[in-house]
Request: fold
Amino acid sequence: MPIDCTTPTVVPAIPERTYPYWYLVDLRIDASRLHESEPRQRVTATAVLRKCRYLQDGTPDFSPGGERSLVTIPDFLALAGENQLAATCFANIVSLIVEQGTDQGVL
Reply:
């Protein structure tokens, strides 16, 4: 049974928000497995992205719905054999690892 308030509480409407971007929240590259049918490594890449918008200060504000997208590259080396962007990306990753390892004195 409702009871009338003498001073009701008014909650303003929440403005509509649009989350138009995907934000990379996790990126993993795994080169720990051998290819099943060939004597070479299988390098996989997995990326997790979440929907977001950017606040005025540039920080991401993630969608309250928690929408996520998973992107996988099951065989990075095979893709690099047929895709120039993948080949350049992989070569740059290896070059960066060598550079950083050298700078850190571990290579």
Remarks:
- The first helix runs from residue 76 to 80.
